[in-house]
């Protein structure tokens, strides 16, 4: 394995944003991906998302855990396949989407990704603010939100290497704190109806699979390869895939199961206060880890949102390939918008959050299907990276209308199957509320794009790429 150039150090200000990372700047190893995706998931939002199973979907303990495991084991396949694209191409994930949608056509899905980043950033800030408020009672939730936002901004200012460094040391601390929480809660005694509360329903089970697993993992797809793009191009797809896969599965499942336990063990609707009460004695440590986890994870959301925002701007200013200063300015702007959202939606957080993640599921499913089919089944990792930055779109064109139409069809076919508090489709009603929209979206988008794209790609000018393949 080639190591490439060694990292200049976490405290060194990263200079690249969306430009291709040259071979001389490549560094790192696949095992770094385990720590970043494990520790970045040990945070309140993961915990609260797991609690949706018993609290919102009313599932009993066993089925809650089964649904979380199933959703994450399946959903992480998509996430890890996207991660393996980074070393191959050396560009951010959404820049690579220009290979399917065209230079300007990709703006639609990139704008959706920016919306996703802001939404997750704001959601995390609310929970981070609550954690700090519980930890230090003299600090209001509002000020806790501001503290978390500033902390994430400082990490993002330094960039890629700092984010990886923070997550390396955070892995043991965050993982240990979650295991400690479970031990203490169980040792103190669980309610008599802990294993019998709730009831299995297909709508609740499928809703939990979709929200706590499939969507949670696919939400990483628009930016997961941003954190592998500095790695040497000759890294094995297999090792990159598996380190990402197990890091994100274990890092997600552990706090989600803690969320299930707390949701069943406490009647307190405020899950953050509930876990602090149930872990009395070390509750302060759990809250501290939660606050640090929010700052850590939100630096990743902020970094990805910054890259996508710059990508949108570069679409219309094709000679613009900004560096560190622009990263800081754009990051500050995203933090400002997210702060406004977090401060405004604290009181309706849980309902707003559930609808938000379900919306993301509907719009991200067709995109991830198109991107992965194109990379692994159509082009086998062979792209002309220079065309991603060509104002004409190079061999991929300005707008790929067929891909955009397939994407919109993939979104539209899900509508009859969706089930949210805002709208329930007719098929979902006939299935007693069971939401299988993501399955339908994949089933339609994958074959439709494959056959259309295979014919189109055969007419393109052959791409000039680095040696090596994308086979696992």
* Total DSSP helices: 19
- Looking at the overall shape, the CATH architecture of the domain at 28-353 is Orthogonal Bundle
Number of strands: 0
**Beta strand %:** under 5%
Order of helices and strands: HHHHHHHHHHHHHHHHHHH
Q: Rg to the nearest angstrom?
A: 21 Å
Instruction: Extract low-pLDDT stretches.
Output: 1-7, 463-472
Principal-axis shape equals: globular
Largest sheet: none
Spatial separation of the terminal alpha carbons: 16 Å
CATH class of the domain at 28-353: Mainly Alpha
Indicate the mean pLDDT: 85
Helicity level, as a percent range? Answer: 55-70%
Q: Write down the oligomeric state.
A: single chain
The CATH homologous superfamily name of the domain at 28-353 equals Hydantoin permease
How does this model look, in words?
The chain has 472 residues and is mostly helical. It has a domain at 28-353: Hydantoin permease, CATH 1.10.4160.10. 67% of the residues lie in helices and 0% in strands. The chain is built from 19 helices and no strands. It has helices at 31-39, 44-55, 61-83, 85-89, 93-96, 98-101, 107-135, 141-158, 160-188, 202-218, 237-265, 271-278, 283-316, 324-344, 349-378, 385-388, 401-412, 426-430, 437-457. Mean pLDDT is 85; it is low at 1-7 and 463-472.
